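Narrative summary of target 7.
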Amino acid sequence: MMKNALFGGVNTAAATAFHPDLSVDIDATAAHCKWLLANGSNNLAVLGTTGETNSLGMEERKKLLEGLVADGVPVSALLPGTSAPNVPDAIALTRHAERIGCRGALLLPPFYYKNPSEDGLYAFYDEVIQGVGGDIKIYFYHFPAQSAVPITVSLIARLLKKYPEKIKGIKDSTGVLENTKDYIRNFSADGFEVYTGADAGLQEILNAGGAGCITATSNIVCPLAAKIYAAPDSAAATETQALVARIRKAVAMAATIPAVKTLMAHLSGNAGWENVRPPHTKLPSETSKALIAAFEACNAPRLKLA
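Modeled conformation, tokenized:
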């Protein structure tokens, strides 16, 4: 396990709360973020995929980040997504995160044009990093199932050669643990932080030298993930990892975002957590019931979400 990583540990890809009219509910989101930090999350990857960020406007994204800090969420714990498919918006969002005091930002590759060359991707990140300046660290977000654009070892190597003090790590959401380990083998010896986006792979990646996880299911299992992180080579961690894997399998019964939010509503007693922005939709009643039943069958320790 990597020691002294800037965002080492359990990073929850925090969900965003919405009012019934689907406007952003900053207070409810902040309350959930505080609950996460009090119950096993070391840090929070806000404004990512699970946060439905690409369903938010630029100003909404900025106001949510500002609102979380104003509501008392520690800015040092925030790793916001500042992704955009164009250089100017990615620069603006990342500069905004640094002005607020965030230590790092998580960036997808440009995700509209398909099959860009490595030179084109290099040029994108190069321009963003130069345009941002400052001290905020850049973390790659590798999620080709969504972005359709991979972040290769060779691309990382080229960018690290030019920006060894600026580029700090990667979240790998492929779910392919050998791919995640490949990043570790190539770069972690030099302090490059590798985070798995796969709940079921946390123990394995920690024992391979990874820095932690950034996952959606941590919205409901962060106390369990914290037990794995505390002693990843222990028998207790192995047992807990098996439970987390079962819960993640239950979540996979439906689309991840509405599934996680349905379970959040179930565990908090707050039906408002089921609100999602288009193109996501609430789960049909029968699917919701089946999901909750599958989750309960996992026999996880009872949690009471905020």
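The first helix runs from residue 26 to 38.
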